[in-house]
Amino acid sequence: MKRSYLFLCWTCGVGFLLIGLWLCFAALQSRGPDAASILPFPLGPQGYYFVAFSGCALIAWGGCLVGAARGHGSRAIGTATAVGLVLAALFRMLFWFLGDLAWMGNVLRAEAAVLLLLALAFVWLRPARAAEPL
């Protein structure tokens, strides 16, 4: 069970790192002269600012998860990751329900389902608490 949990931490960590790097690159690339966005939706300068900020946060989060895959402090990082994934899923469902992003179709619901499944995996595969030394 612990090996599955550490693999989950490593896999999600590498995925978050790659997505974060892609978002940072997209934000930088979009600011050049006559640059076309590589993102699937149009954004203004403020949008690209938040894309870059999100990319940086994902890089940090991914680094923490990759570090947790080494076994040190993985319980706390995995729990925090599960909370973050649930919050992200709730926001996606909120925007889907409100219809603000109707042009995305059911993508938000599918993303929310994947995020909730990952959160469940982080909680379910979490290793047992080690006995505290006296």
- Strand fraction: under 5%
Spatial separation of the terminal alpha carbons: 26 Å
Strand runs, count = 0
**How many distinct domains?**
1
Q: What's the shape?
A: flat
What pattern of helices and strands is seen along the backbone? Answer: HHHH
> What is the gyration radius calculated from CA atoms?
17 Å
List keywords for this structure.
4 helices; 134 residues; mainly alpha
What topology emerges from the helices and strands here?
Layout: H1 2-30, H2 45-68, H3 74-98, H4 107-124
Q: Could you give a short description of this structure?
A:
By secondary structure, this protein is mostly helical. The protein has four helices and no strands. 72% of the residues lie in helices and 0% in strands.
Describe the structure.
By secondary structure, the chain is an all-alpha fold. It has one domain (2-33, 44-124). 72% of the residues lie in helices and 0% in strands. It contains four helices and no strands. It has helices spanning 2-30, 45-68, 74-98, 107-124. Helix 1 (2-30) runs antiparallel to helix 2 and helix 2 packs antiparallel against helix 3.
